[in-house]
C-alpha cells in the first residue's frame, strides 16, 4: 500500500522527535561515561567539558577501587541486592501461593489486610519506631526486614499462581507430595518468568536503597553505595571514608569530577549488566500475573 505525502511527513516528524528525545536522554549517560575515562590532565585543560577524550584513562576507577569506604559500601549494596532479593522472593512467592489456595482458612481476611497495606501507608515515624523496637537500628537487616515484601507484588504473583491448573496439584498429591513439595518442585519451576521479573524489581530497589539507610544507619561502615555516592556528588568537600573529595583528588592528582563520574558509572553498571539477561522474562512474567487474575 503506497504511503501518501501526509503519511511520509508524519513519519518523518515522528522520527525526528524520537531522535531528539533519544539524544537528550542518552547524552547525560554518554557524558558521565566519557568524563569518567578522561585523562585528568586533559579534563583540566578543557575546563571540564569533554565530548570525546583524546587520552583515555582508568585512574579514577583505580582510585575508587582502592578506597576502603567505596569498597565497603559496594559490598553492602551487593549484600542487599542478593540476600535481600532472595529473601523477598521466598516470602512473596510463599505468601502468594498460600493466598492462591482457596481452602486456606482466613484467606479473605489476609487478602483484605494485603490490600489495606497497598492503600494505606503507616508513615515514617511509626515505621522507625517499629524498627527501633525490633533492635534493628544501625543494622544492615533494617534495610531488608521492613521491605521484605510488597502488597502489590503479592497480589500480582497470587494472580499468576491462580492461572496454574489445579489438576497439576491434584496429580502431585496423588503421587504423595505434600504442600511444600508441590510448591518447590512444581509451582516454582513453572513460575520462572514471574520470579525473574519480580526479582529484578526487588534487586533494583535494594541496590538503590537510600532513604531507609539515612533513617536507620548511623555507622558509616554500614551504609550502602547510594549514600556514599550522594556524599560525593552533593558537595566536593563532603567527607568520604575520612577524607574529603578534594583531598582524595589531590592525593592522586585527579579532578574531583572524574571521581564522581566514575562512581556513578560503577553504581549503575551492575543493574545494566543484569537487565539484558532478565529482559526476556520481564514482560511475560508481569503480564501473566496481571492479566489472568
Automatic annotation (TrEMBL):
It is found in: Cell membrane. Gene3D superfamilies: MetI-like. Residues 74-278 form the ABC transmembrane type-1 domain. It comes from the Bacteria. Pfam families: BPD_transp_1. Keywords: Cell membrane, Membrane, Transmembrane, Transmembrane helix, Transport. It is a multi-pass membrane protein. The chain crosses the membrane at residues 12-33, 76-99, 111-131, 143-161, 182-207, 258-278. Signal peptide: none annotated. Coiled coil: none annotated. Belongs to the binding-protein-dependent transport system permease family. This is Inner membrane ABC transporter permease protein YcjP. The lineage of its organism: Bacteria, Bacillati, Bacillota, Bacilli, Bacillales.
